Amino acid sequence: MKKIQISPSILSADFSNLEKDIKKLETAGADMIHVDVMDGHFVPNITIGPPVIKALRNKTSLPFDVHLMISPVHKYIKDFANAGADIITIHPEATPNLQESIDEIRSFKKKVGISLNPDTKIDIVEDYLDKVDLILIMSVYPGFGGQKFISDVLEKIKSLKDLKDKRKLNFDIEVDGGINFSNFKSVIDAGANVLVSGTTIFKENNGDIKKNIDFLKSI
Ligand code: DX5
Ligand code: ZN
Hints:
The two termini are 12 Å apart. The chain has one domain (5-216): TIM Barrel, CATH 3.20.20.70. Helix content is 33%, strand content 18%. It has an eight-stranded parallel β-sheet with strand order 1-8-7-6-5-4-3-2. It is of the alpha/beta class. It binds D-xylitol-5-phosphate and zinc ion.
């Protein structure tokens, strides 16, 4: 069983002082920083791009777990790689050639993730499971923090874990969206080993980030 890792989403951080919140996350024991990149085209929201990632790169040694909710995505991979992303996760619907985009991420020596929206079936990535470091299961429709967890995805996580075990693969199963203190145990029991959380980590317990991360790591 892999150690449970926490990847806080800075979508819920103080955008007027990201350095402050990133340093708080590092001190609080976050394993990586989940950076939600949105383009207002693939998802109905716009957040940040490579210049912000570049500006934050030397503020922490934590890995940047960059979730690209943008399309087309292929031509921007190099910009995020050069800005300092460590993991680059893309949505299969955002590229005409998933293998080429995987190869592009690899060419920059970055870890590769593929993200599946709630209604995207595992089938479309079955042939790539041995080529990636991470499968990011969306438990909300991407675009905003603070949404309600879609519990139907628990079955999808279980199926993915079964496939991973059957094929003796080692990719991480990361779950993203609506994770809170009531559902995180079921997400882990289903087979996830990396939890993304924005609202719960930044808002629960009067914003006591360390307490919130410790609780998500408590099983
Ligand atoms: C949604 C993002 C998620 C989200 C998680 O599109 O991909 O990472 O910010 O935030 P919470 O934990 O608030 O649902
Ligand atoms: Zn995300």
